[in-house]
Amino acid sequence: MTPRKLQVAKTVVHLAALAPLALLLWQMWAVAKTGSNALGADPVAEVEHRLGLWALRFLVLALAVTPLRQLTGWAVLVRFRRMLGLYAFAYATLHLAAYVGLDLRGYWTQLFEDIAKRPYITVGFLAWLLLVPLAVTSTTGWIRRLGRNWARLHTLVYAIGVLAVLHFWWLVKSDIREPALYAGLVALLLGWRIWKRWQPRTFPSARA
Fold this sequence. Notes:
This protein is an all-alpha fold. The protein has 9 helices and no strands. The chain has helices spanning 3-34, 43-72, 81-103, 109-117, 119-136, 140-146, 148-153, 156-171, 177-197. It is globular. The termini are far apart.
């Protein structure tokens, strides 16, 4: 892929990643200004749900980059992994901010009580907390500083995926089909990584 085509592709990904947020903000404005039913009967819950769901989606997409590259041979896919991971972190942060700002009405100290009392909030907050160092060390400078430790640190993304799915699963009270779908995807991607890791390495035979 030429640099120009890569730039166009990244621009398209940025626009696609920001579109759900733009739509949500427009609907929030419509509810605030006109009292419309754009966000359903419980707007606060809908805002939190959408932001959290998109965080999980981008996390799964970031996890899928390496398997897709290995299956297709398209090395260019790696160029999008950091972007997808950062969008997962951004939506997860907005999800947390919406919970504190809209649900708890800014009483952020209540968050720590909820973390201690509600397991689904405990694992959700832990998933976000583990995302922080990955987002901070996503720059080229940090990759150089950490060397091989960078790859070791970023294997946390699989633990984050498990925690995020568990957060979603415990949050849903009746219909678990959607969290089950994401649980299956994360399990498949994690299973692929384990399988590839334990595959015997092949070495070129020595010539006589």
